[in-house]
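Lecture notes, unit on binding sites. The following record was shown on slide 14. It pairs a sequence with adenosine-5'-diphosphate.
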Amino acid sequence: MGTLGEGGRSIVYEGERRGERVAIKVYKPYGMEKHRRKHPEPLAEFEYRRNRAFFEAPGLSRYVARPIGFFHTPGVSALIQEPLDGELYYFYYQERKGALPTGLFGHIEKIVERAHAAGLFDIDLHAMNVMVVEEDGQPIPKLFDFNLVPWHERIRTPWVTLLLKSGLRNSKRRDLRMLRDFHDFSRKVPRLLRYFPSTG
Ligand SMILES: Nc1ncnc2c1ncn2[C@@H]1O[C@H](COP(=O)(O)OP(=O)(O)O)[C@@H](O)[C@H]1O
Ligand SMILES: [Mg+2]
């Protein structure tokens, strides 16, 4: 059983369940602690539910890793998901020096449009959260990371209430900004590169 990757909140392993290859996203204690302050639902259940909502939204399933299950025990908490065989968008882009196949970014724009149409916001859309998978010789972006708690679902601390009431938190705004700045890797990527030591 190998590792598929690591993020700020989890380590993702490759495993097998009923004869099927699966990705098992095991949460770090730090990730669960951060989540607890934002949402009452256990992180594994929250991410599973959110993964399903995206997978089932009209026109989105081809862009989303299929959710398989979750477990939440005092010892370990994990999400089980379809394993994606591809390359993270950031590395895919670097290898091609930005010369991307036509249409690839258009798919990403479509993801945002369709998610919003389905009432799904705060997608956590950045180049380390998108896997580029070849399908019938065509590169297709796929999402797999669904644990960001949308602003409108957050526990109402005075700060959250204030921002929501003031209208400073428009539900689409964050996604549209992430889309606009998608190829500005300075915001999200440097912090995450430490989880990919082989890439230097
Ligand atoms: N379903 C999957 N298939 C293949 N690799 C995955 C899958 N889910 C996550 N990974 C790998 O694990 C890394 C961390 O996963 P991610 O969901 O971003 O975790 P976090 O919520 O901690 O940011 C990803 O960058 C990716 O390389
Ligand atoms: Mg991530």
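Take-home: The mean pLDDT is 94.
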